[in-house]
Design a protein that fits this description.
D-Maltodextrin-Binding Protein, domain 2; 310 residues
């Protein structure tokens, strides 16, 4: 049994198709088939069930695949550690976040403090974050909803209120607070399923036995404020958005939601079994030892009309 056999087996197991696996591996299909046959002979049992030209990973193959994935991940970590020890820099740190607006200021401060670090940023929803951590494609995820798994560690970074944003001239613009039932017929601008913003909106409405009316949904939570300002609907926005200078050009009116649990909790999540570069270790120390958000921004004082304005 050798490393090449293991890598070939993992690819065939992923596709469950010899031709597609051979194409990805850039090898001839007969050569790939012989390699898998030798591996099965070494193990003394078939790893795939074969029906004509079709193959399916069997129970023995599934057991072996779990061990192969761990072994190859350890080897990849070893190569990465050697490269980082050889290079003069701090190495690479990969970070995934649901929205780039939240993480950008933090990464900027980190790069200023550690200019030799190679930072890679990914935008992902919760399901993709979980996959990236398992596959060790990223070192950390900045998550706004729980990521579960025995292999994960997490630390809370910040907790903030989530507000209702409405366009100027909206019927709710003069209100100090509103309840969820009052919003039953309002069109919402939000994110697709899988993002924290949509998960919170659905949960708040479900608690009242309601379903939100969604008029616009997308993959970038940071774009919601622009669409609300344009009059496409109303939406729930984390209080930190009031701090982002870019949104000073995106005027909306802020109203508090009278609903329990209307907040966002940000956590830093990582795979405890994965190798962390020096850059990754410094990043974790950096974001956990200083306030993640510069300061809490309260709603401004209401003017004579009673509206809270950006």
């Amino acid at each position: 049994m050798d490393l090449l056999q293991l890598r070939y087996f993992r690819t065939v197991a992923r596709y469950e198709h010899m031709s597609r696996a051979a194409e990805e591996l850039h090898v001839a299909q007969p050569s790939l088939s012989r390699t898998i046959a030798r591996l099965e002979a070494d193990l003394g049992t078939p790893l795939f069930d074969r029906e004509g030209r079709r193959i399916r990973l069997n129970q023995y193959g599934a057991v072996f695949l779990r061990h192969v994935n761990r072994a190859l991940s350890e080897l990849d970590d070893g190569r990465r550690a050697v490269r980082e020890a050889r290079d003069t820099g701090l190495g690479r740190v990969g970070v995934a976040s649901e929205t780039l607006l939240t993480i950008t200021p933090v990464l900027g401060r980190f790069r200023t403090a550690h200019p030799r670090a190679d930072v890679r940023l990914f935008q992902s929803d919760a399901q993709e974050m979980d996959r990236q951590l398992r596959a060790r494609e990223v070192d950390f995820c900045l998550a706004s909803q729980p990521l579960t798994g025995a292999h994960l560690d997490a630390v809370e970074l910040a907790r903030e209120e989530v507000l209702l944003a409405v366009p100027y001239g909206h019927r709710l613009a003069g209100r100090e607070s509103v309840t969820i039932p009052e919003l039953a017929d309002e069109p919402f601008v939000t994110t697709r399923q899988g993002h924290w913003q949509r998960a919170l909106l659905d949960r708040l409405f479900a608690a009242e036995g309601l379903t939100p009316l969604v008029s616009c949904e997308g993959d970038e939570p940071g774009a919601s404020q622009d669409m609300i300002s344009a009059g496409l609907g109303i939406g729930i926005i984390p209080a930190v958005s009031r701090q982002v200078g870019a949104h000073e050009r995106v005027p909306v009116v802020w109203v508090r939601l009278d609903a329990p649990g209307c907040e966002r909790t940000l956590t830093l999540v990582w795979n405890r079994d994965a190798h962390l570069s020096e850059a990754a270790l410094k990043f974790r120390e950096f974001v956990t030892s200083t306030p993640f958000m510069d300061h809490h921004v309260p709603l401004p004082q209401r003017d004579g009309g009673g509206a809270s304005r950006a």
